[in-house]
Design a protein that fits this description.
By secondary structure, the chain is an alpha+beta fold. The chain folds into two domains: 147 residues, no CATH class; 60 residues, Arc Repressor Mutant, subunit A, CATH 1.10.10.10. It is built from nine helices and eight strands. The chain has a four-stranded antiparallel β-sheet with strand order 1-2-3-4, covered by helices on one side. α7 crosses α9.
């Protein structure tokens, strides 16, 4: 299904809010344990959920992006869960963000979390310290794998998953993409939007990688990456 057709069905970005994924699917796309995703999307007696699920039935693309960003914050940069909670609460309340980790591009110096202001791209608000202002030059390779619209709304995710060699965002390929406007949010090949499971099914049926690549007009590296995602390294 083309992006245009899907947009006709779900106007005003509603596709991004549909419960398209289970916790297990989100875990696979982000290289996390399913128990971690469940913990981050579940409220407790002491704390609300870090990521508010789209519904009791599942998680949305916006939730997927939030978990992706949270994985970067926690595992790539080692930010404490307490600081993350402070930042999420600040952005949710002060900036009126329904999905703080998806709607605002958080950056970090390894200690605190910052969000850029709309007035000055070089000016950062320290979200984990309740709004202190600072100026920093920060580049986050992991967070650049979220493609955003001009207003910051997340449009597509190039997942970093457990089978990605070295789990290094700058070196991770972008052969796979998740876009809720395409194939109902299933991971697809970036170049052609062919669903990953279609490629994998042909491989399981006995087709060689090069034959599959020719069939779908894909580079062999893209087919291999689809197999790594689905079947592991």
């Amino acid at each position: 299904m083309s992006p245009t057709t899907f947009e006709q069905l779900y106007q005003q970005r509603e596709a991004y809010r549909l419960p398209l994924y289970s916790a297990r699917q989100v875990a696979k796309l982000t290289g996390l344990a399913a128990s971690t995703v469940q913990a981050w999307t579940r409220a407790t007696d002491l704390h609300g959920a870090l990521v508010q699920p789209a519904s009791a039935d599942g998680l949305s693309f916006l939730n997927l992006v939030e978990v992706h960003v949270l994985a970067a914050i926690r595992h790539q940069h080692g930010i404490s869960l307490q600081r993350v909670r402070h930042a999420v609460q600040f952005v949710r309340e002060e900036l009126q963000a329904e999905h703080p980790l998806a709607q605002h591009q958080l950056e970090t110096d390894g200690v605190d979390l910052f969000v850029r202001t709309l007035e000055d791209d070089n000016l950062l608000i320290n979200a984990s310290r309740r709004g202190q202002i600072t100026i920093r030059e920060l580049v986050e390779a992991y967070l650049r794998r979220v493609e955003r619209a001009a207003d910051g709304f997340p449009l597509r995710l190039f997942p970093v998953y457990a089978s990605t060699p070295g789990f290094v965002p700058d070196g991770a390929p972008a052969h796979l993409v998740v876009d809720p406007r395409v194939a109902f949010g299933r991971p697809v090949l970036t170049a052609t939007y062919v669903p990953v499971d279609v490629v994998v099914d042909q491989y399981r049926a006995g087709d060689a990688v090069l034959d599959i690549a020719r069939n779908f007009n894909l580079p062999a590296a893209a087919v291999e990456e689809a197999l790594r995602y689905e079947l592991g390294a």
